[in-house]
Specification:
Blueprint (H helix, E strand, L loop, with lengths): L7 E4 L2 E3 L2 E3 L2 E3 L3 H4 L1 H4 E2 L2 E2 L1 E4 L1 H6 L9 E6 L6 E3 L2 E7 L9 H11 L9 H13 L4 H8 L4 H13 L3 H9 L22 H21 L3 H18 L11
Parallel strand pairs: 8-10
Antiparallel strand pairs: 1-2, 3-4, 5-6, 7-8, 9-10
């Protein structure tokens, strides 16, 4: 049947019926290419993310040959026909209802990897996408299991849309002395330090002093313990190197 052209081979043991057009056969859509990785006995276990979603949400017109899949349990990337199948670790439970929200959060998480677009323009587009979300509290709740930079940008976007109360739980999870920069949503800087950054540094100093007084030890020792705890935490949760670090 392959030789007759009725079916075409996608990869070892996998075939599809090609749709014939004037200029040749069309490839199957990406979801069909990886359907076995998205469902297991009728249960949703994965979802498309990455380039296909950047394109679907209007962030880029490019369509690559990399199919990225969000899953709770990942595996090394591999080839399937002309495509490279790659995986993104998802810490939230994956359901059909949560997939559109997870795709938005994945886009925020990998926003700097979107090709041929300025960060400020991407943020403007994100505002429109998030504005159309009807369940913004669930979006914020799911973001809790994403890196701090994702939570920070989502919080800024929600505040821009007039939903400040939703951002309070997100704000409480962020390091008070860390500044996150994301295009038009960067902290304003006058002489190099924003008023908000100054306020956070002062709160941090007060927290060190209060702990020092409580434990009756010098503030420098309290700060040392803080960084000894915080630095490994941030490294372990870093997208690019976290999984490779061993202490």
């Amino acid at each position: 049947m392959v030789q007759s052209g009725k079916i075409s081979k996608l990869s070892k043991g996998r075939y599809y019926k090609p749709e014939k057009k004037t200029f040749g056969n069309l490839l199957p859509n990406q979801k069909q290419v990886v359907k076995d990785l998205l469902e297991d006995e009728g249960k949703t276990v994965g979802y498309l993310t990455g380039y296909s979603i950047y394109n679907k949400l209007g962030f880029t017109t490019q369509v690559g040959n990399i199919i990225q899949i969000g899953k709770n349990e990942t595996r090394p990337q591999f080839k399937r026909g002309m495509y490279t199948i790659a995986f993104l670790k998802q810490k939230n439970t994956i359901t059909k209802d949560s997939i559109p929200l997870l795709q938005i959060l994945d886009t925020i998480r990998t926003i700097r990897k979107i090709p041929d677009a300025r960060l400020e323009e991407l943020c403007k587009r994100l505002l429109l996408v998030i504005k159309s979300v009807t369940d913004k509290p669930t979006l914020a709740r799911l973001a809790m299991k994403y890196p701090p930079s994702t939570r920070a940008l989502l919080g800024a976007l929600l505040e821009e849309l007039g939903s400040p109360t939703i951002t309070i739980p997100l704000l409480k999870t962020l390091n008070p002395i860390t500044t996150y920069r994301s295009g038009r949503f960067s902290n304003p800087r006058g002489n190099g330090t924003s008023d908000e950054t100054t306020r956070k540094k002062e709160l941090f100093r007060q927290a060190l002093q209060a702990t020092s007084d409580q434990l009756q030890i010098l503030p420098i020792y309290v700060e040392k313990d803080y960084w000894v705890t915080m630095v490994p935490h941030e490294l372990f949760h870093a997208d690019d190197i976290g999984k490779d670090i061993i202490f």
